[in-house]
Backbone:
């Protein structure tokens, strides 16, 4: 099978499953990889749908800050 025919087959299967309502697409929370402004440690922060700036405390030093 060529790439084009595989792509068309995948699109057809997706359309059929969405028409049958067996495939449900949900939007959930966003996970932001933030870096602490004080100690530089990486932090993983959950943000509700539609929000870009979330307040969090660093897991290493406890510094309270907001994501960018």
Residues:
């Amino acid at each position: 099978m060529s790439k084009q025919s595989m792509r068309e087959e995948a699109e057809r299967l997706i359309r059929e499953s969405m028409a049958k309502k067996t495939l449900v697409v949900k939007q959930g929370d966003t996970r932001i990889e933030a870096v602490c402004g004080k100690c530089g440690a990486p932090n993983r922060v959950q943000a509700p749908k539609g929000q870009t700036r979330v307040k969090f405390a660093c897991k290493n030093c406890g510094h309270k800050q907001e994501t960018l």
The beta strands are 30-35, 42-47, 55-57, 64-66. The mean pLDDT is 88. The CA atoms of residues 35 and 42 lie 5 Å apart.
